[in-house]
Design goal:
This protein has 15 helices and 5 strands. The protein is of the alpha+beta class. Strands 1, 2, 3, 4 and 5 form a 5-stranded antiparallel sheet that branches. Helix 8 runs antiparallel to helix 9 and helix 12 runs antiparallel to helix 13. The chain is globular and about 60 Å long. The chain starts with a helix and ends with a strand. The mean pLDDT is 93.
């Protein structure tokens, strides 16, 4: 299996798929996991679901198959099916129960069943407090328990920052900014949120940034934007900085203003390097808040 996942890391999907097929022939659950991962590498979520559905019927005692299937159902908002998968996984031998309880909490959160999500998160073992911190912050805000959310986020950001990825730190910062704003419109909220979206430019963070900025215009239009920039420092193993492309969906008055909104998502040294590579002007959007609505990750490349 390790060989197959190494191949996927190298984008050698066909070779990984061949390994998965061989393992599937002997009814090894890992074969179905590999084949599902191959489908996801090809952006074929439905294909991955079909493989995992087959896998759970062939190897029903393999809890990782049930869990992965539940995750995909949850991502498709098929929450009833997701919950059923997690219950099947919990009944399997050798299951990592806290992992499944966390998954169940996430489904409840997505269904706005915040009380149930919080109950599951609070029951997790102590070593799960850090991995579940960002989700708990979201749940507390969902319950409008803003004071608790503020204390929770500050505690983990001040005492456990080194244990979080940049994305997880960004999510905690977003939730802290939301709580500060909802509690008493704190002036700390918007600068904090602007720092957060540099670390976690997901749809939720972008939505909150648009709401707090509250920028509107009768001349606003939808722009599909591709920007080019230069990273501010070399990555490990590199002797020079790399350039990148990034695609964004933006509502703005002009391409220049759209570029300004794109710069808000980058570290300061990177933002200054950002230029428009190409853009397409779409329909008028005078009723929408201005700002970035979607942003891909950075696609890095070496200067030719």
């Amino acid at each position: 299996m390790e060989r197959a996942y190494s191949l996927l890391d190298e984008h050698e999907v066909q070779e990984a798929r061949e390994i998965g097929e061989e393992l599937k022939k002997v009814r090894f659950s890992g074969g179905f996991e590999i084949l599902a991962a191959c489908c996801l590498q090809d952006d074929d979520q439905e294909g991955a679901i079909k493989i995992l559905e087959e896998g759970t019927s062939v190897v029903p005692q393999a809890w990782p198959l049930w869990r992965q299937l539940g995750i995909l159902y949850s991502d498709q908002k098929r929450h009833d099916l997701a919950r059923s998968c997690y219950e099947e996984a919990l009944a399997c031998p050798g299951v990592e129960e806290p992992l499944l309880r966390f998954d169940q909490a996430l489904v409840h959160y997505r269904e706005w069943r915040h009380d149930e999500a919080l109950r599951l998160l609070d029951a997790l073992p102590e070593k799960w407090k850090v991995p579940s911190a960002a989700l708990k912050a979201s749940v507390l805000n969902g319950l409008e328990r803003y004071e608790e959310a503020i204390d929770h986020c500050r505690f983990f950001l001040e005492n456990n920052a080194e244990n979080f990825s940049a994305r997880e730190q960004g999510t905690l910062m977003v939730e802290l900014a939301v709580a500060l704003w909802e509690k008493d419109k704190s002036p700390e909220a918007l600068p904090l949120l602007r720092r957060a979206v540099v670390m976690a430019s997901d749809l939720y963070a972008l939505q909150k940034l648009r709401e707090l900025n509250d920028r509107r215009s009768a001349q606003a239009r939808h722009f599909c934007l591709i920007v080019k920039g230069k990273w501010h420092e070399p990555f490990d193993g590199e002797s020079h900085v790399l350039q990148f492309l990034r695609a964004l969906e933006v509502v703005a008055d002009s391409p220049e203003e759209a570029l300004g909104f794109a710069r808000e998502l980058e570290p300061e040294p990177v933002a200054a390097s950002l230029v428009i590579d190409e853009y397409e002007e779409m329909e008028a959007q005078p009723g929408l808040l201005k700002g970035v609505y979607e942003a891909t990750g950075h696609i890095f490349f070496e200067k030719e």
